[in-house]
Amino acid sequence: MAWRTYVALGDSLSAGRGDTDLDGARNGWARRLAALLTKRTGMTCHFTNLARDGAIARDVIDEQLPALPAVDLISLTIGMNDVQLPAFSFKEFASELDQIFPALAETRATILAITLPDIAHLLSMPPELVPIAKDRMRQASDAIREHAAAEHVVLLDAWREPEVRDLALYNDDRMRHPNAKGHQLIATRLADLLTER
């Protein structure tokens, strides 16, 4: 199977933060995935990135879904900014996923999603907040996993991947965005999930 058109939705992970070329332009796992799919299928995968730094689930609903064109492949990363909101509500986040995942399924495109990585211990925060962050990230990942299963979404379950906890995959920024190596790992894992199924 080949995917000729691909749109990435979500937050800074999909926007490619942490993975820039010598000119300062972002690469990111989503752009890398499009290149891998082009190479593996022999058909050009045209890529559009609607993701943006700082996006939360509500932004996907209000801004990104309305701008979504008809495509063959859609990816979604969301949740890391949501769980850092002081007034984070798991119930509200799950309700927003109730809107996002069915809307994506209605497109009839192949849908990709990624759970949050279990990296609360790597984030720049007071030690007493790490257990709270970890619990929120686990809850968000559980909700993403549940919605992905309900809508037959191709899921990279980063929460359950010990390899993604490796500090060598991340930049030394407050949010621990992946570096080029980390973005390449995500792209390769997703390409494998797509082309080997």
UniProtKB/TrEMBL annotation:
Domain SGNH hydrolase-type esterase: 8-185
CDD domains: SGNH_hydrolase_like_1
A family per Pfam: Lipase_GDSL_2
Highest taxon, organism lineage: Bacteria
InterPro entries reported for this sequence: GDSL_Rv0518-like, SGNH_hydro, SGNH_hydro_sf
Name the UniProt record assigns to this protein: Lysophospholipase L1
Source species taxonomy: Bacteria, Bacillati, Actinomycetota, Actinomycetes, Streptosporangiales
